[in-house]
Amino acid sequence: TFDQTSNGRIHSQTIVSTPGHKFLVVNATDLVPGASCESLVKAAKVVEPLVERSTEVIAYDLTLNVEPSLNGQQVAAIIARCGQEISAEYIIEFDNPGSWWVKHFSCGDLGLLQKWLSLSLLVVALLPVGMYSWKTLERRQVHNDLTALFFMSAFFLALHCIAFTVHMVVYAKNGTGLAMIAFVAQFLDLLANCMLFIVMLMMAHGVYITRSEIPQDSDEMSNSM
């Protein structure tokens, strides 16, 4: 989907060695089941022949600007060869001219990079709070399975935010990102949610942070004496 204010662009790099191929830009509503190749060519907003009548391998580098009339519409790029098998190698990119903050993001995803960067900064800012809470519970000797699961959940969630932010930054630069980092980030998010669910389940069954008696070497015991 393109926005009128973004002046979207379609960049196609295609290598063909046989005649009859066409590069089409059609409205997504025209991609109905059973639609014939000829009907798609007829309904296409852009029809660009990709090869001349020759036996040579020809490479095409096309850059098409999206018309303002396509504001809010979904478009599809198609390589067609009506009545014959398609034999082409291609790379097609939809992007927004501008800085890397917006270039590779669709209209619905604009601002996503800023959101994840802000979230990662928030995670880093809250890190001292988490460390202080951990030390406080450790000093009071009240750590148990519940607190361990909670802190592990928070730790995995923080790693998820940072890892996915790295993926988003790389995606903003090259349009593909880091698939392995994105997978690891999603897996960490799954672990964090599972652990948090277990913590909530344990609390619902009466497990909570407590201690049966005051440790002999604690400040509370010294004050009470």
From TrEMBL:
It comes from the Eukaryota. The keyword Membrane applies. GO terms for biological process: G protein-coupled receptor signaling pathway; response to pheromone. Coiled coil: none annotated. The chain crosses the membrane at residues 116-134, 146-172, 178-202. It holds the Pfam family GPR180-TMEM145_TM. Residues 122-216 form the GPR180/TMEM145 transmembrane domain. Keywords: Membrane, Transmembrane, Transmembrane helix. This is GPR180/TMEM145 transmembrane domain-containing protein.
